[in-house]
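Minutes, project check-in
Item: structure for the 654-residue chain
Input as provided by the requester:
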Amino acid sequence: MLAPAANAQFATGGSGAYRNNILWFRWGNNTTSIPQGGTTITNSTRVDDQFLRMTCSLSNIAGGTGASLMAYRPGDYSGDGLDDLYNIGGTGTANTLGVGLANRVDGASVTARFACSATFGPTNTGADPVFPIDGLVFADAEQSWSQQGEFVRATLTGAGSFRILETFRSSGCQTNGTVTIAGSSMTMNGSNPLCASGPVAIGFLDGATSADIAMKGGGRSAIALGVMVFVADGGDAPASYGDAPHLPDFRFTGGVPSGANWNYSTNALAQLAPPLIRLGARVDTETVSLSNANASGDDANNSDDEDALASVASVRLRAAGSHSIVVPCSGGAAATIYGYIDFNRDGDFLDPNERSAATACSGTSATVVWTMPDAAGLVDGPSYLRLRIGNTASQLSSPTGIATGGEVEDYPVTLIGATITLHKALAATGRRNANDQFVLSIAPASGVAAIRTTTGAGAAIDSAPASLDPAGVGTAHTLSESAATTTPATDLARYQTTYACTNARPGGQAPSGSGRSFTVTPVLNDDLTCIFTNTWAPTVDLAIAKTNAPAFDIRAPGDGANDAARPGATVYTLSIWNNGPDDVVDALVRDVPQAGLTCSGNVACTSVGDAVCPTGAATVAELMAGGLTIPRIAFSTSSPPQHYLTLQVPCQVL
């Protein structure tokens, strides 16, 4: 996003908080003399297709003999502290950020005027529009010792106010640094005893474009000068989406020194207040492009200012449909927001309907609304969202280009073309075995399947359904169920399985049928909810033996003695058992006597093992008419059966 400036530099190292914001001026190679008549340096920093052109000059140089000033590299003297805050390449002699101005003659007092102006525009000349400077920065570039009367000073020549931005002193040092405010001047006093490095402070001339500087060295003294700029907050979506630099309008609060010997080591320092027009709570700036595939480069740069949205909800694609996002913001009705979504995933935000309608930041939030393209302009899968806010709507109506104020934030977003949800149900007969469970699967032809294993008892399914959200448009998906691993084993063969789907898309496909697997290929806007229903139909094999032998025993069946029918009273026996493989519930037993028999009265029932006699009095009339209901007979696993009933029926042989 930013091309490096030729004669001014941003620090790349050190603990300073404003490495991306203080443009330090470099006056020449170390020890190079500054022309006594003054010098002017113009530095151009490219921001997208525009240029921030900063021009600063030194004039009215006086003090010492011959050339009064020379260039100085902070860190040349071991006690310097500025290089600990701001450097390139390291501290001490490794530092190449040579931005100091020193008295060329030891012990000399030197004064000069430092003034800056800026333009911002496409021509990189003075003809571009004036760009407001946030303020000037100055710092002691070489350690000052009060025992030698050393100091550096800045005096305002016009509007402005003083703040202390940050300080440094080497670890373990207890010496406090001080400044003195007298009228329109701020003096950074020397200290005693000195720290191994420092103490040193970064002073800010808030709102100033010009100041008279002064320095006094017992030997060498040096001052560093810079300009505070906030260029620029940029997007971090992949490079194909283009950049959208914003020049946020930051303001400082606090850190205002007063009187003599104001202690900057212990007093509160200035704080950077967020711009009035912003997305979320924070804004930061960067000096290089931070685009990457995850749109996360700006998140990891200084503070995470991509904070308007903690996460971005997936977008459900609907041809010509509406999509909206509620965006936290500040700035009120004067702030306009545009949003951009790459609906066709072609690597830009330039296609029809990819830009939202403009909306104002009302209160603390705004609802950003898109009307989606038609079906040809919608492609499901991973994509990107860009949000832009500012006070000049015409600067935001394009997804790229500079905006003088506000902020830009980029996010990854998933575009959902279709959704498949797969449920499980059991008929009223429930599970064959109490531990029976089932595995649901939605498996795309390529990719990861959505799998869910059921829980629950009886006819209940307590687990959530399987869901594939998104499901790929145009991709075949196999929906299936299989047996979960249980004890005893779940046997799907014991169930009849059907499936049925509904679709929230009017007129959309809705497969149904029988079986434990089927395939569906979603189209755009399909929202399928499918269900596999298992019905356990018990399989039983009822057996009945009928005899009038008085001593018949089902456990030792055979031709009984004395079973010839003679006129008179007799009792015949029905023996009923179940060869399975399932238990029988509510079976009906019906028997109509053959000719020559007349039967009446009650039927006597005896149960053996896990078998249950009919409820209440059982009559011969019921047996011969609708039949007797047998509540239960468990299946017998051996022969002769271990679970059975005997019904004794009183009759007359005619």
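Outcome recorded: The radius of gyration is 45 Å.
No further action items on this chain.
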